[in-house]
Design brief:
With 345 residues, this protein is an alpha/beta fold. It folds into 2 domains: 113 residues, Rossmann fold; 188 residues, Dihydrodipicolinate Reductase, domain 2, CATH 3.30.360.10. It contains 11 helices and 15 strands. The strands form 2 sheets. The chain has a 9-stranded mixed sheet. Strands 3-2-1-4-5-6 form a 6-stranded parallel sheet, with helices on both faces. Helix 4 packs parallel to helix 5, helix 5 packs antiparallel against helix 11 and helix 8 packs across helix 11. The protein is globular, with a radius of gyration of 20 Å. The relative contact order is 0.15. About 5% of the residues have low confidence.
């Protein structure tokens, strides 16, 4: 598959490197950035032609798919340009920064029939995949609680490094929208359909930003389960991402890339890199698989989805659900009351 990367910043550089690491037959054909020197610098490292005009890039017959790596508030418009030109799209999280933009994006996907995948690579790591299957198989019994924790550190210099960082218009939010959304996606993957949120947020440790650096929320799920979300960019020096899933027959805890605890009433136990005594591959699930490896695995899934004319593992509807939770958290924090989540009409 022949790719164009749109956006030559840090994330664009990651995608360019991933594309050049894909199995034989994939190629980075172009890098598009309004700052031509950035596009040139990236193609100098990874190949392809530097370009400054997305529409012209999408008109090229030698490009099959476009990787959108722009500031979050530009995702939908860029993706729609690509889709309407007949290109498949893989887009960084979040889908965009408003539900209206997300729905325009999804409408274009459905109208054109092209394939779209949204990056949420942690689902491709071994530990989350193992826990998700355990939940689906009922090994944890009735799921009662999930806790999603993203305790990051971002310096003031991080926010000052780009004019779009920390803005509502282009960043869409702070600690939750940009850093915490990955573990929010995992929480929803494990616990199902969210129906209500109640939240608090604030900017406690940074200046010159319009968004939160600390947020805490409670999520009620259709099943009756209750989830907790904590996200911050003010936890020096930063702690590992952590997801806990509890049921009346078992529990599982993932920390960063590892399954650090897995206990079920039927006798299965796994901790750290050690397998359980129940004959299940808990040990395999707890072997570290890096986020970079998972990112590459999601690219492979995207290519296979295009080839096989099937939905990718993570769809725009999955991403919209996570976005609705994040925006619901922000609305609840603003109003002080609960916010109902309705899904896409």
């Amino acid at each position: 598959m022949k790719f164009a990367v749109v956006g030559a910043g840090v994330i664009g550089a990651t995608h360019a490197r991933l594309i050049t690491s894909l199995p034989e037959g994939s190629e980075l054909v172009a890098v598009v950035d309004v700052e031509g020197d950035r596009a040139e610098a990236l193609t100098g490292k990874h190949g392809g032609e530097p370009m400054t005009d997305l529409a012209k890039a999408c008109a090229r017959p030698d490009i099959d798919a476009v990787s959108i790596c722009l500031p979050s508030g530009l995702h939908a418009d860029a993706a729609i340009t690509a889709l309407e030109a007949g290109k498949h799209v893989i887009v960084e999280k979040p889908l965009d920064v408003t539900l209206a933009a997300a729905d325009r994006f999804i409408d274009a996907e459905q109208r054109t029939g092209m394939t779209v995948a949204v990056i949420s690579q942690r689902r491709f790591q071994q530990a989350p995949a193992f826990v998700h299957q355990a939940v689906a198989d009922g090994r944890l019994g009735r799921i009662t609680t999930g806790i999603a924790e993203s305790a990051f550190w971002r310096s003031q210099e991080y926010y000052d490094s780009g004019g779009w960082r920390g803005t509502v218009e282009l960043d869409g939010g702070g600690a939750l929208m940009n850093q915490g959304i990955h573990v929010v996606d995992l929480l929803l993957w494990m616990l199902g359909e969210p129906v209500e949120v109640q939240a608090y947020s604030d900017r406690l440790a940074h200046e010159r930003i319009d968004v939160e650096d600390t947020v805490a929320a409670t999520v009620r799920f259709r099943s009756g389960a209750i989830g907790s979300i904590v996200a911050t960019t003010s936890a020096y020096p930063g702690r590992p991402v952590r997801l806990s899933v509890y049921g009346d027959q078992g529990s599982a805890v993932i920390e960063q890339d590892d399954l650090v605890a897995f206990d079920v009433a039927d006798g299965g136990t796994a901790t750290g890199a050690h397998g359980g005594g129940d004959g299940q591959p808990a040990g395999e699930a707890s072997v570290t698989q890096s986020v970079a490896d998972a990112h590459l695995a999601q690219y492979v899934d995207f290519i296979e989805a295009v080839r096989d004319s099937r939905p990718p593992a993570i769809t725009t509807l999955d991403a919209r659900r996570a976005l609705e939770v994040v925006l619901g958290v922000y609305e609840s924090a603003r109003t002080g009351g609960p916010v109902q989540l309705t899904g896409r009409a």
